[in-house]
Amino acid sequence: MVNHLVEYSRWLILLPMGAGEDMVEDLLSRNPGHPLRVAIDGVTASGKTSCARWLASAVEAQGRSVTHVTMDGFHHRRVHRYRQGRTSALGYYRDAYDFDALLTNLLIPLGPNGSRVIRRRIIDLATDRPVEDAPEMLPADTVVVVDGTFLHRPPLPDYWDYSVFVDTPMDIARARGMVRDADALGGVEAAGRAFDERYHAACRIYLDEVDPRARATRVLPSIDSLLSQE
């Protein structure tokens, strides 16, 4: 498990040196006429949030306004998320995220002829309580980076102006997730079972049903591909 985490850390270092810089240049060349809506997709614990944070910093360094939103703020409440059982893979795939709320509160207002008035979240995931944050208006030239799982599920691709699939091998993502989520899931072994039975089982449904690699604007190379460049 330690070896997987070391490889993952090396990937984060290598990303900006090659694929990352090219991605930023490509992304900033896009001008849709409204805020640029960017999806950072990948299996659970693939490094989506780390990638999104790095991308937001890189865009900001180029003088562009940027907003980072995480899908943690667009979950359904627990009673809905777990209605098919706490270990259900299909329940995680179908019921975890409120994609209608994402469209209504973020993606549609940022699209063509949109108001640009958005809400960054609808729920506090830790407390499971709805939130009513004040709406905010974003600049017309801003880049909005959204990270989460299942972001190429229809109809979402129609609302992204640019999308990335972080193609981290499942075993490496599992090792990272076990350590990351051990406290929340009852220990490392329990976290491993949760990834096998629910989180990554759901991701396999997603990969088979949607094929996000084929739908993404850009697929970030796997760790093996990046390490072979050294």
Key terms:
disordered N terminus, alpha/beta, 230 residues, 11 helices, globular, five-stranded parallel β-sheet, two-stranded antiparallel ribbon
Strand content: 5-15%
Query: How is the biggest beta sheet arranged?
Result: 5 strands, parallel
Compressed to H and E, one letter per element, the order equals: HHEHEHHHEEEEEEHHHHEH
Within the largest sheet, what's the order of strands? 2-7-1-8-9
Shape: globular
Distance between the termini: 22 Å
What's the Cα radius of gyration? 17 Å
Helix content: 40-55%
Which structural class do you get from the secondary structure elements? Answer: alpha/beta
In round numbers, the mean pLDDT is 90
The tally of beta strands, per DSSP, is 9
Count the DSSP helices.
11
Low-pLDDT runs of 5+ residues are 1-13, 223-230
